[in-house]
Amino acid sequence: MKKLVASLTAVLACLGPVAAQAQVKWDMPTPYADSEFQTKNDYQFAEDVKKATNGALDIKVHSANSLIKNPEIKRAVQTGQVQIGEIFKPNLGPEDPVFELDAIPFFAASYREARALLEVSRPAITEKLMKQGLRVLYMVPWPSQAFFTKKPINSVAELKGLKMRTYNAQTARLAQLMGTVPTTVQATEIPQAFSSGIIDTMFTSAPTAVTTKAWDYTKFVYDTQAWVPKNVVFVNERAFQALPEAVRKVLLEQAALAEKRGWEWSQRDNDESPKVLVKNGMSLTAISPAFSAELKKIGDQMLDDWLKKAGPDGKKIVDAYREKLK
Known about the structure:
This protein is an alpha/beta fold. The chain has ten helices and eleven strands.
């Protein structure tokens, strides 16, 4: 009998790590398609977490609005409907101006500037989301935003009356200042919106243009390098705290690696995706100096508007950012 008990104890000890696999399952909605580098990074993060925890935490990524629609993802994570999610951070601008600072045109337009801005604004971003029960895991930028049109554009005046794709308050304001008609269109709906005449023009990253096969619905792309906005991945804090300490530690370690990898992939795609657009017949050029000056003036106005909304706390971030760039 003692031998039998000893044998069973040994078997259960061996099964312990296996039994722990998939003990906790999380759902992770994201609005973006599987082909986007952001989503690929999420899949890699989930795979690495599962492997590093020996299956104790199993995160299932649900891409392309398949589980939760884009505008509802943050609320779903807050309420615990899902445990973790990804959104475009500037979409949170109506809640607090700090979330949309990286989407102001020509303010932080290079990767160096985007990194500096994230470093000085991260404490405020993480603190504000934590107050809502959300822990920031990682933030990854999209490549710099280019300008796509059906016809050549050389000035703001030539845009008047065109329908421009928007996806948050900042891009809607930009559309208004450019004299275009703001038209809300999600990333997965871009091809149909262009083809059906719902929109005539848009700002977006070159990788998104490749994903949506922009050459099928538009012709001209201008390398404006307008801004480098970021996605944010966050987790419900209660769900995070419910994990064993060792699993929490692994989750944060893998999140740091996902952020580092995401920045590297973003810069890679920033270099490679424009080549794919040209290869497929699109016309890629820099905007004219006059057009660039007009857009820069609009960006300066949007920054002034932002500073008025953000108040002293916002000015501290902008001042710290400019000091860091020196």
